[in-house]
Amino acid sequence: MGAITSLFVRKVVTAAGRSVDGDALLRSVGVDPDDKTDVKKMVSDAHYYALLETIMAQLDDASGFPVRVGQSMCCDDYGAFGLAWKTAPTLRGSFERAERYARLMSSVVEYEVRNHDKGAYFMLHREGERRLGLRLSNEMTLASVASISRQVTPGSFAPLEVHCKHPAPATVSAHEQYFGCPIIFGSDMDALLVSSEALACPNRLGDPAVSRFLEAHLDAEIATGTQTTSFEQVLVRRISERLSDGPPRAAEIAKEMGVSERTLHRRLSEGGVSFQGLLNQTRRRLAEGLLVQSDHSIAEIAFLTGFSEQSSFSRAFRGWLDQTPASFREINKHI
Hints:
335 residues; H-NOX domain; Arc Repressor Mutant, subunit A; two-stranded antiparallel ribbon; alpha+beta; 10% strand
């Protein structure tokens, strides 16, 4: 049996509005209406699909319900997954991160970015009987992807095509209006086809806490009276900006800076540091800043500092400061 975040349960119940008894529906799948939304709390996929079918049967007007749910989704609702999406440099980067972090939201869905002559498909893979609940869930997921893509893309975002494996519902006008492109039902995939131009467009949403760290770092350098930006300063900024993609390699950073990897290592060596040492120092300083200056969870800070697991981040942090991230935050939040 698979699991799906209770965030989705709350979203579909809210989108259903007054046509349903929302509190009763939440309780029916083990979600306490009075609890704070927790993206990590899961419900079974079978219960979730059954809930969708129950809601559809109770709605006064069920047309367009899946796109209404998708439209309500925001990056910040998704916790670490949303953070991964919005801090990527481009929409392609957001899609590629979704491939990696989909398991944070569900154990029954996988994403794939598959190149196409016009750009790439963002594909949804979900196994199971194509009953109504699963079909609705797939439509909601694709609508959600469009919603959070529009939130990070500076221009107006619309896919080139939307593909759904299942047959078309009785009315598709709401779908067509929302997506703004042809919708191909009865396709051989569940996917959005996105243009090369949209994929390459820089995202406009960054993480404010990371930005504050970078600004503070620059302010500190200015305070020392340094008149020019050093090679090492540029490296720190580039490393910080890329950590949420995982620890960058020296060769990647060197290419971005227009120098050879050998030159990068030589210039760092002249200053008495190594690339690995600078990487570790940057991760540590960013982690310290985020723990004190932001409300991000420790799991989210682990992601932002280049760790794929919170446990790996906690081990590294103990190695840096001989204390846990939680204890460091507790002590320094009150200073």
